[in-house]
Amino acid sequence: MRASKGLLLAFMLLPLVNISAGAQQRIISLAPHTTELIYALGAGENVLAVSDYSNFPLEASQLPSVASHNGLDFEKIIRLQPDLIVAWQGGNKPQDLARLASLGFKLYYSHPQGPEDISDDLRRLGLVLGQRRRAEKLAQAFTRDLADIKALYHADKKIPVFYYMWSSPLMTIGSKAWVNDLLNICGAQNIFSDAPTPYPEVSVEQVVRRQPQKLIAGMNTSLSDASTFWQGKRDLLAAPLMIVNPDKLHRFSPRLIDGLKQLCRKIHH
Asked: Do domains 5-145 and 154-268 have the same CATH topology?
């Protein structure tokens, strides 16, 4: 039987509420990073379905997908009858999440705004999953590691860099993008931090005019393939090119620490 509207509203407003803590909850994850959080908290065996691109850990990629950039597969979700749906507020479509709530499903909303918020997300979700002790251990380790990286790469004068996630069209980041904060932690300055949108399209000519000291491709590609795009432009732009793992950097999970360490090392190499 579904929860009453009053209980459902309480759960939506207070994601810290521990519903059936310790029980074998049947779970659906609606984003790659929420999938990673669930597995990190030791509840992976309870996951029924995930979103597209939920490829870590490997076993998650073997599960059926019920979420994509087009939205949710409500028929599959209803058929699976999960006890808990872990959603990405800000990533999943608001109208889809509203429909899930109207159907009576219990929802947990993950909504980190900055790297520091990952620790809080771990604690809140851990409480809901009955994994409070494990969540606290992960959260403390994440907070400690993040502080160490900040201290190691703190710099008053930052290295100007061009970070891009796609080459055709050439898509970079603005000041409101998640990775902009990561670049600042690494002692780098995004050359398009003045962009009015989080993910603007720019031209090679604009990049050349701003003369970054590093080119950073946050893409699942090889250095050789990424270098092909810049061929013929090297007489105007001599900045070295590097590849970083977008799955580790763009997802709000404990793996961010590994991605951030890699990013910082490459910037300062």
From this structure: yes
Structure-token match 């509840």, residue found:
43
What class does CATH assign to 154-268? alpha beta
Which is higher by pLDDT, 124 or 20?
124
Q: What pLDDT is attached to residue 50?
A: 98
Strand ranges (E), 39-167: 47-51, 65-68, 71-72, 84-88, 107-110, 159-167
Nearest in space to 165 (alpha carbons), one of 249, 91, 254, 265: 249
| Homologous superfamily (CATH) for 5-145 | Nitrogenase molybdenum iron protein domain (3.40.50.1980)
Domain locations along the chain? 5-145, 154-268
Q: CB-based burial of residue 246 (10 Å sphere; 0-12 exposed, 13-18 middle, 19+ buried)?
A: middle
Per residue in 171-209, pLDDT (tens digit) is 999 999 999 999 999 999 999 999 999 999 999 999 999
Q: 49-54: long-range contacts (C-beta < 8 A, 24 or more apart)?
A: 49/76, 49/77, 49/80, 49/82, 54/29
CA 21, 24, 26, 29 torsion-angle sign: positive
Amino acid at 97: L
Phi, psi of 214, deg, nearest 5 = -140, 145
Is the whole-model pTM more than 0.90?
no
Prior bond of 169 cis (ω within 30°): yes
Q: Give strand pairing partners of 195.
A: none
Q: How far apart are the C-alpha atoms of 113 and 115, rounded to whole Å?
A: 7
